[in-house]
Amino acid sequence: MTKKANWLTTSTTRRQFVLGSSSVLACAALPWPSLASANDKAVVMPELRGRNFNLDIDYQMVNFTGKNRIATTVNGSLPAPILRWKQGEKVTLKVTNHLTHDSSIHWHGMILPSNMDGVPGLSFAGIKPGSTYEYQFDVQQSGTYWYHSHSGFQEQTGLYGAIIIDPAEPDPVDYDRDYVVILSDWTDEDPADVYAKLKKQSHYYNRQERTAADTWNDIKDKGVAQTWRDRKMWNQMRMSDRDISDVTGATYTFLMNGQTPEQGWTGLFDKGEKVRLRFINAAAMTLFDVRIPNVKMTVVAADGQNIEPVTIDDFRIGVAETYDVIVEPESDKAHTIIAQAIDRTGFAYGVLTPDINMKAELPELDPSPILTMADMGMNHGAMNDMSMMDMSGDMGHQMDHSMHMAMATKMGSGKAGYGSNMPVTHKDTEFGPHVDMRAEMPMSKLDDPGIGLREHAEKYGRKVLTYADIHNLYQTPEPREPDREIQLHLTGNMARYMWSIDGIKYADAEPLVLKYGERVRFTLVNDTMMNHPMHLHGMWSELETGDGVRIPRKHTVIVQPGSKISYLVTANARGRWAYHCHLMFHMMSMFREVKVI
Amino acid sequence: MFKVLTLFIVITYVNISNAAGMIDDPLLTMVKVDQLELSDSDKNTWDAQAWIGKDLNKLWLKTEGELTSSDVEEAEIQLLYSRAIAPYWDAQIGWRHDLKPELNRDWLAVGVKGLAPYFFETDIALFIGEHGNLGVRGQFEYELMLTQKWVLSPEIEVNLFSKNDENVGIGSGVSDISAGLRLRYEIKREFAPYIGVEWNRRFGNTADFAQQEGESRTHVNWVAGVRILF
User: Fold this and answer.
1) Are β-strands A106-108 and A143-148 bridged in parallel, bridged antiparallel, or unpaired?
2) Helix then strand then coil, % of chain B, to nearest 5
């Protein structure tokens, strides 16, 4: 480690560094050298190829923070080995559990029989300690996917890895070299303790709360009366506009391909090469905003499925989503890959370089996002009452969007690909001590980049990917209209740290029953202030981005705070499937069984 | 009382294995020592709460009291069943027992505890005593974040009674009001030392009883202590 990252060789410890970087002010105050270097040697992730795989789940000592901790890994590797399959082949995976607890592996995004899906209690009984489960299925699709444990909190403690499936036909994507970039969050704490802390004090990990100084600055800028009005709604609702992530850099170390920010992951490339980066968000609780400063990224696949290429500067990747991008970096310098946590309390970091000795500039973190009333799904009238409107800023931008989207929806009239026209209604089960808010006027936010990214185009000239940009590369094979629509509300009580769907948690819920062959529109309404990445197992979520001809297929869909979003599901896979928010500490209760009979 | 405490501790201990699984609503315990403080007079106080339970139903233990170098002057304990009734509010019902001063007093306690709009932590309780005495206590606290670690916390407590109870120095009407201002530094969420000032004034008959005992109506004390959560 002769060339230990020099931007970290300050007197502060790593933990102080990560915490210190959590506010822009602190960033400015800290010594923030502009050069960053990566590891001396590029870390090569283990990769397994073929049709037969032996995967051993076991405990493994790791050290990300200076303290030894026990992780759960596959074949002793964190992340787990990359599995490289070929579309059309049958794969056999013998998974042996050496833990003292039950384990499982779920192949995220794979279309397969339900008993191969790896969800204990739904697909199978789980893998008992000391026993082996043999997974076997035909690989029907191609692209970038991932796998992870679906038992306990094992995913948080390291049990995740990438799947790359090479297509049977020639790849429509042209590239010279490809890398998996798997993002994750690590905590030295026992995840059960993290969960308990959130239940006792939901703001436990939030060290970016509104302070008296913020209020003082508001008063100086806007006067007492306006500040009072601005604060009124939040104060009455007893909610914080600084509540971005439940679990933050206060306990998390963010990893890129298993490397801490100090280590940095390194990817090498040769002059003139097109590099395909396969981004996977394998974090338990962290959405990331990814960019490579001064390098345009062309997104070619979302959740493993090819899309019409779209060139952007930034993209947000929800927990469990994958994006493949093509970059053609200038060959005379090293380039930083930075994945900022959505709340800016830290980042995962890597370097793309033609020469291992080159250094890359580390950009400043973007400012931490602040929630607006629109993120609460408040209607226009209520917002006017509360005088929350600074129409020139964030909100004005958004209102334009929502009006634009409202028109698009009207024109589409609820046709396949255009989303729902159904009125939003709150069920009786949504009222009670377990639900703290309901979005009164949830807006479609397909072309809203989301909190913390909305100003990027205006302020920095950076184009941010939105769901509205995503169109399937191919025509929708089955452009059927939906037979019916299911509206589900994502609900919770932030302070009590309770989560549910329609106000009913998984333990008390009946399964959603779909008839084999029917096509159903799922409309999700987010009645909370958090982003929820919703994942349906076993069947594609055909995201209605306003294109009836080329409907993109996803397995995980971010539902933004106070918004609604729709996708179509053809119930073409019999059995019992899991459907849930992929944030680890929301999942246990914000979960439904989907039964296709 | 001892049995209840033992049971509480046993349940707490057994709980450790319970939270380890993938249960959405594990049985949890929390202990919150809000005040554990010394003052510039010979009067030191504690105010602590603990609960065991799940999301919507909990068993609460509250205790507060005052001790001097020579003796425990006041001590009160409440054991309450607590049930969530609204997003930010719990209804609490149970037993209040005053161990000091002198004569033991038992009360039925009925109250609401929660977070009022504008982030006022609120605990209002009605106490129904053995001899038909009614008491009402209101406690309100606000937390002003000066920085992410420095928190200024004003609080106020008001006690009212329907009858005199001269044996324990309680007079009818508003018996006393206390107001405090504490500045704490959160070294960790779990551990925060603080300094503060506490103003207390007795009214009406309560004040008269106090004066008969040679105590004054009004006290102003500097305090220093720690706040502990786990």
Assistant:
1) antiparallel
2) 15, 65, 25
Token pair listed for A112: 């397969």
* Contacts with A436 (C-beta within 8 Å, 6 or more apart), sequence order: A237, A239, A492, A493, A494, A495, A496, B87, B88
Q: Is the peptide bond before A46 cis (omega within 30 degrees of 0)?
A: no
Question: Tell me, what's the ipTM?
Answer: 0.90
Amino acid in position A318: G
B103 with B97: CB under 8 angstroms? no
Taking only the tens of pLDDT, chain A with its 597 residues reads: 333 333 333 333 333 333 333 333 333 333 333 333 444 456 688 999 999 999 999 999 999 999 999 999 999 999 999 999 999 999 999 999 999 999 999 999 999 999 999 999 999 999 999 999 999 999 999 999 999 999 999 999 999 999 999 999 999 999 999 999 999 999 999 999 999 999 999 999 999 999 999 999 999 999 999 999 889 989 999 999 999 999 999 999 999 999 999 999 999 999 999 999 999 999 999 999 999 999 999 999 999 999 999 999 999 999 999 999 999 998 889 999 999 999 999 999 999 999 998 888 889 999 999 998 888 877 544 433 333 333 333 333 444 444 444 444 444 347 899 999 889 999 999 999 999 999 988 989 999 999 999 989 899 999 999 999 999 999 998 889 999 999 999 999 999 999 999 999 999 999 999 999 999 999 999 999 999 999 999 999 999 999 999 999 999 999 999 999 999 999 999 999 999 999 999 999 999 999 999
Give strand ranges (E) for A362-504.
Answer: 443-444, 484-493, 498-501
Contact residues, chain A to chain B, C-beta under 8 Å: 151-153, 192-193, 195-197, 199-201, 204, 207-213, 235-238, 432-436, 493, 495-496, 498-499, 505-507, 588-589
Three-state DSSP state, B11: helix
What chain A residue is nearest to B87 in terms of C-alpha separation?
A433
CB pairs under 8 A between A and B: 83
Amino acid in position A421: N
> A434, B55: Cβ pair inside 8 Å?
yes
DSSP annotation of A375 reads G
Judge contact between A81 and A75, C-beta under 8 A.
Answer: yes
Reading the block at residue A323, the tokens are 């994006």
How far apart CA A72 and CA A156 sit, in angstroms, is 9
Q: What residues in A contact B228, CB-CB < 8 Å?
A: none
Q: What residues have CB less than 8 Å from A532, skipping those under 6 apart?
A: A490, A524, A526, A558, A559, A581, A583, A586, A590
Q: Phi/psi class of residue B169: alpha, beta or left (left: φ > 0; alpha: ψ in -120 to 50)?
A: left
What Rg do the C-alpha atoms of chain A give, in angstroms?
A: 23
* CA distance to partner chain B, nearest, from residue A26 (Å): 12
Copy the structure tokens of residue B100. Answer: 């000091």
* Nearest CA-CA partner of B188 in A201, A405, A83, A243: A201
* Cβ within 8 Å, pair B56-A212: no
Helices (H) and strands (E) in chain B, counts: 2, 13
Percent of the residues in chain B that have a pLDDT greater than 70, as a whole number: 90
List all residues 6 or more positions away from A587 whose beta carbon is below 8 Å from its beta carbon.
A580, A581
Per-residue model confidence (pLDDT) at position A125: 94
Gap between the Cα atoms of A393 and A377, Å rounded: 18
The phi-psi region of residue A109 (left if phi > 0; otherwise alpha if psi is between -120 and 50; otherwise beta) is left
Q: State whether residue B14 is helix, strand or coil.
A: helix
Question: Is the Cβ of B115 closer than 8 Å to some Cβ of chain A?
Answer: yes
> Tokens at residue A421, please?
């026209």
Q: Are strands A90-97 and A52-62 parallel, antiparallel or unpaired?
A: parallel
Which residues touch A192 (CB under 8 Å, ≥6 apart)?
Answer: A153, B19, B20, B21, B26
